[in-house]
Design brief:
This protein is of the alpha+beta class. It has two domains: 95 residues, lambda repressor-like DNA-binding domains (434 Repressor (Amino-terminal Domain)); 77 residues, Immunoglobulin-like (Sandwich). The chain is built from seven helices and eight strands.
């Protein structure tokens, strides 16, 4: 009569137990590791608990496991092979589609979970600060190159007169330089200027030019007709 011997097969421990026990031996908290490897605490706990159906898809799950195993200094490739088998079993028992077909590996992750990662938050903050700085610089540059506001109160355009002198007055933004027919005029602190210009018989053109440092030039012209008595 043939006798049978019972042979014990030593199966490797599940991936989740390897992760959990190793972390406990290192005396580290899941939340601290989450911040260091930029993987959500929820997903690390799902890996440690064997709740693979709570992970956002096989591709992302492998990426999370790879980062976690490297941090814990575990054999990455061996854990990934075991994880693939365990994940398939978990999907079958929880009626979750398996992930053998490469075209079904990618699954959607909610925007809230994507934006909740520290790197995404940090990137968003940096982008906001950069936009604010660019906007501030844009306003400053525009203020520098924008021409000053120039108003010529007198004389009116196409004025007909018999006088040989005319008063040109007006106002301009403070700090602007003003010339009348090429002659420099100094406005007062309020930006008001006034100058007497000599005329000749016939049509006279008076050009008032104003400019700030590095700004564009603004010009105002007045035509005056002088008729003899």
């Amino acid at each position: 009569m043939t006798s049978f011997r019972t042979r014990t097969i030593d199966a490797p421990p599940p991936v989740n137990e390897v992760l959990r026990l190793t972390r406990h031996e290192r005396g580290e908290q899941v939340a601290d590791i989450s911040r260091r490897i930029n993987v959500s605490t929820e997903y690390l706990l799902a890996l440690e608990g064997g709740c693979y159906q709570h992970l956002p898809g096989f591709v992302y799950a492998k990426s999370f496991l790879r980062s976690y195993a490297r941090y814990l200094r575990l054999p990455v490739e061996g854990l990934l092979q075991s994880f693939q088998q365990e994940y398939a079993v978990c999907c079958a028992t929880t009626k979750t589609p398996t992930v053998v077909d490469s075209q079904r590996l990618v699954e959607r992750i909610g925007w809230a979970k994507l934006l909740a990662t520290p790197n995404m938050v940090r990137t968003l903050c940096i982008a906001c600060v950069a936009l604010l700085c660019v906007g501030y610089l844009g306003v400053k540059v525009r203020g520098i190159i924008q021409p000053p506001v120039l108003t010529v109160a007198q004389p009116s355009n196409n004025l007909v007169t018999s006088d040989i002198d005319v008063v040109v007055n007006g106002s301009v933004d403070a700090g602007a330089q003003v010339t009348i027919n090429g002659q420099a005029v100094v406005p007062d602190q309020a930006g008001v200027f006034s100058e007497v210009i000599s005329l000749q018989d016939g049509v006279n053109t008076i050009e008032v030019v104003a400019q700030k440092k590095h700004s564009q030039v603004v010009r105002v012209q007045r035509n005056i007709i002088v008729v003899s008595n």
